[in-house]
Design a protein that fits this description.
The protein is an all-alpha fold. The protein has one domain (2-135). It is built from 6 helices and no strands. It has helices at residues 2-29, 36-41, 50-58, 62-93, 100-122, 129-135. Helix 1 packs antiparallel against helix 4 (62-93) and helix 4 runs antiparallel to helix 5. It binds zinc ion (ZN). Zinc ion (ZN) is lined by residues 35, 37-38, 44-45, 47-48.
Length: 140
């Protein structure tokens, strides 16, 4: 159990460190990941605006976070609950398997993201393709 806890903490630490480095790089340079879907076709994928959403959230700008990617923002607590529950079971019992509610939550999240991806391009729900051209910034 202790080994699994160490392994999980190490992996979470690496993931967090990469996230912090990317965040600092983005804040210092204003260069972020460019969405290939947006670059090629001018449409927003369900994940577009994620970096700006997280940056807004870290600046306690909830309105900005909702504008950039409302779907991911709303799904964060659910996805965190799935991740924590999954790794808690792994650390405790050594079993890596998704429970029924994990699968249901992931399918629900995928459905929300798919719907958001379609609706955000059709209607002006927060960040919209026309805003990127109008404001002259790259969307990431
Ligand atoms: Zn995208």
């Amino acid at each position: 159990m202790k080994e699994r806890a160490k392994e999980t903490a190490k992996n979470a630490g690496v993931l967090l460190a990469v996230g912090i480095l990317y965040y600092l790089f983005y804040r210092l340079t204003d260069i972020g990941f460019k969405c290939p879907l947006y670059e090629l076709f001018g449409i927003l994928c369900p994940g577009c605006g994620l970096t700006r959403m997280i940056t807004s959230l870290l600046s306690f700008d909830l309105k900005g976070a909702l504008y950039y990617n409302a779907a991911v923002l709303i799904l964060i607590p659910l996805l965190l609950a799935v991740g924590i529950s999954y790794y808690y079971e792994y650390i405790k019992n050594g079993v890596r398997s998704l429970k029924r509610w994990h699968k249901a939550a992931l399918i629900f999240s995928a459905a929300i993201m798919l719907a958001y991806g379609i609706l955000r391009n059709a209607f002006e729900i927060g960040l919209h393709p026309s805003h990127g051209e109008m404001l002259g910034f790259l969307i990431y």
